């Protein structure tokens, strides 16, 4: 038997399932493997032998996942230790993979997951294990290096830009002066916040200021920016990344005793609340509304980008193809070929070049004042949000596939 | 000359413009009035003679408003005093209406706006003024009495239920136990929070608990509910109205020094944050995610209900028709005729029966434990979210109509 396994890790996106379906569907068509297993709840689930045979389930019951947001195979946040530190875990995983006659392990995830792929492939190589490890990118944050962009980003950008447009209209209705602050995700990088630049109305950008983690945030300069703009127009629209920080590196709105997740990342929140109070306390404006888009950015399939869904599917399909050509310790990237018309292709790159590395928003795409982005950001982002998926609607709501029984979720 | 004027007031909705277009389009077809004026920024704008002649603008430039969220004619929150208190304001308004030869004033708004319509119509009657006043309902809160429901509610309910579905999938991916709390608007009534009951997956309701302002909220009972549910399942989904309060009437999460708006309403926020802390501090669950849908509920046209848009258009059209039959001091309501298939009709009712009154969520639609709603709520809400509007898309985003130049917004 020659089987493969696919698992998902880290925060969900709207299109992470499309990549899993890309693997499964290309295997149905090309018979690369006898069985496609799913590791439920990522590497953590596999360690507990929480494994389901997708090839045993009627494809009609599964294929709806392509248009279902979030990690349909479950997820985990599990930082794999080096094998010098915890050899047992490696031994256990390879025992399980051997038991299921698994020749390829596909791991769909962000930086942390690619680190897992990297470590396993080195271990396999060192110990002559006949298992290949292939990474498939996934993150709304768009912060994986080398590739042009990551699956999940386009749909998040589309939701952000749509919300910006609609909230701009909502915020513009009263005659008194007011400020609207929309907070996006993006702990380390400003890709998500910057994507708000594609929201235009009557040909003009909707957003007045965009603040990114890549530029040190100065509360004084922020108040100066807003106050000046309020002398020119009644309604000022601000987009801010959750990851903005002072030049000393302190997160804005970070409270004393802020919690940290398992990777040591600070758990953020409340940036827009902090900025609201700042505006009110300095009497810069009387009316401030804030909106934290939060999880909506990673699960709003009803507002996803078809381009993003297609590319997520394509990286899964491509991963299956690469896997039978002996590739291991690689992940699948997306390369942009042209912008008008937009075309892209997939390619394989070593996970070592991606694992634990971050692609920052380019400094040259940020304006001189450090409070907005340039036309380059617009040109870069726009093609990635194109196309509206035809979601199946039942009783006025999206009909999503939730395999809680089959997957014992 | 025989002219009319239309204005919008209070918080926006996704479909409030459809009602204005209903008036304008039926006038184009039936020539009730020589000119349809718009009072920009409601009664406050009219007092400042901020008035635009919609009939002077090419209809092709305006008609896109039907599928544009928020108050395209601007809005205000202006509490009209009684004419005993401030006679001058009444004299001024009627002078302006006379100057523009306005015979009918259409005011699209919620409880406060219907109060304005009521006061003006009494004044007109008393002083033999030949101006009719007609109210058109609008509020996502769905809290106007007598009518079955209000335009704006269906689209808000659809956005809430869609977000519940998608966030349920997002929240279900990790294996550790967790609680998700989604906060809806609804200061006085639970209609919006209750609408989450229509979100089902594989035939099962997604939401475990719904807490409404109509039932006194007990933090102890809440923790008991959640803790008990966590013994039965890993992920608990809670929907809560911003207006929940203790049996003493104190809003949950209300901080000391909370601000109040001009109508004396407490400015809310932070209920879900309060409940999150409550769960964490009592060690009821380790992982709690919260989402405040906020303004998205009233402006997400991309996820609006076509039934809602059609009915909002219809109440506008109906208001124009009623106005030429000598009706004044009335507003247009919606009556449900049947549920399967869903049909409704418009009717006129006296604004005095609506002004400053509140329609609460029916106690008999709340379960015995006071922590969820019954099947009646499901049957009531479901028909109102049906149908997906065909929004014009340009560059991957909705193309909305924003007449900032024409309306001097």
Structure description:
Chains A, B: Pathway: Carbohydrate degradation; glycolysis; D-glyceraldehyde 3-phosphate and glycerone phosphate from D-glucose: step 3/4. Chains A, B: Residues 4-301 form the Phosphofructokinase domain. 2 copies of one chain form a homodimer. Chain A is an alpha/beta fold and 409 residues long. Chain A has helices at residues 16-30, 42-47, 59-62, 87-99, 111-126, 153-171, 191-194, 219-230, 271-281, 296-299, 306-323, 375-381; strands spanning 3-8, 35-39, 51-53, 102-109, 132-137, 178-184, 200-201, 204-205, 209-211, 235-241, 287-292, 330-339, 342-350, 393-394, 397-398. In chain A, the strands form 4 sheets. The first copy, chain A, has a 7-stranded mixed beta sheet with strand order 3-2-1-4-5-12-13, sandwiched between helices. A 4-stranded parallel beta sheet of chain A has the order 9-10-6-11, with helices on both faces. Chain A has a two-stranded antiparallel ribbon with strand order 7-8. The two termini of chain A are 27 Å apart. The longest helix of chain A is centred in the middle third of the chain and has 19 residues, at 153-171.
Q: How would you concisely characterize the structure shown here?
A:
With 409 residues, chain A is an alpha/beta fold. A 7-stranded mixed beta sheet of chain A has the order 3-2-1-4-5-12-13, with helices on both faces. A 4-stranded parallel beta sheet of chain A has the order 9-10-6-11, with helices on both faces. A two-stranded antiparallel sheet of chain A has the order 7-8. Chain A starts with a strand and ends in an 11-residue tail after the last strand.
């Amino acid at each position: 038997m020659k089987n493969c396994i696919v698992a998902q890790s880290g925060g969900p996106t709207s299109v992470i399932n499309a990549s899993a379906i890309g693997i499964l569907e290309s295997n149905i068509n090309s018979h690369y493997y006898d069985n496609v297993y799913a590791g439920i709840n990522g590497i953590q689930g596999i360690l507990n032998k929480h494994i389901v045979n997708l090839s045993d389930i009627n494809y009609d019951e599964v294929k709806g996942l392509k248009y279902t947001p979030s990690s349909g195979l479950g997820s985990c946040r599990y930082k794999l230790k080096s094998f010098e530190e915890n050899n047992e875990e490696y031994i256990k995983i390879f025992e399980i993979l051997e038991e299921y006659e698994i020749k390829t392990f596909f791991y769909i995830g962000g930086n942390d997951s690619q680190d897992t792929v990297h470590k396993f492939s080195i271990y396999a190589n060192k110990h002559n294990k006949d298992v290949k490890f292939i990474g498939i990118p996934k993150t709304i944050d768009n912060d994986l290096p080398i590739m042009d962009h990551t699956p999940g980003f386009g749909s998040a950008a589309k939701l952000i830009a749509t919300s910006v447009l609609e909230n701009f209209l909502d915020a513009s209705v009263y005659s008194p002066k007011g400020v609207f602050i929309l907070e996006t995700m993006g702990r380390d990088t400003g890709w998500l916040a910057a994507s708000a630049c594609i929201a235009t109305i009557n040909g003009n950008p909707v957003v007045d200021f965009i603040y990114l983690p890549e530029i040190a945030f100065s509360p004084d300069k922020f108040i100066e920016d807003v106050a000046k703009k309020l002398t020119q127009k009644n309604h000022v629209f601000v987009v801010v990344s959750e990851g903005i920080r002072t030049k000393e590196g302190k997160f804005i709105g970070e409270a004393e005793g802020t919690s940290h997740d398992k990777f040591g990342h600070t758990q953020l929140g409340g940036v827009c609340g902090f900025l609201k109070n700042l505006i009110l306390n300095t009497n810069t404006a009387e009316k401030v509304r804030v909106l934290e888009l939060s999880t909506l950015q990673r699960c709003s399939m009803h507002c996803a980008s078809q381009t993003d869904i297609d590319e997520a599917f394509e990286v899964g399909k491509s991963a299956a193809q690469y896997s039978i050509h002996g590739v291991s310790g690689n992940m699948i990237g997306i390369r942009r070929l042209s912008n008008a018309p937009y075309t892209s292709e997939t390619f394989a790159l070593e996970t070592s070049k991606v694992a634990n590395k971050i692609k920052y928003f380019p400094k040259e795409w940020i304006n001189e004042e450090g409070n907005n982005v340039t036309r380059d950001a617009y040109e870069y982002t726009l093609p990635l949000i194109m196309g509206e998926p035809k979601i199946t609607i039942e009783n006025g709501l999206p009909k999503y596939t939730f395999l809680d029984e089959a997957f014992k979720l």
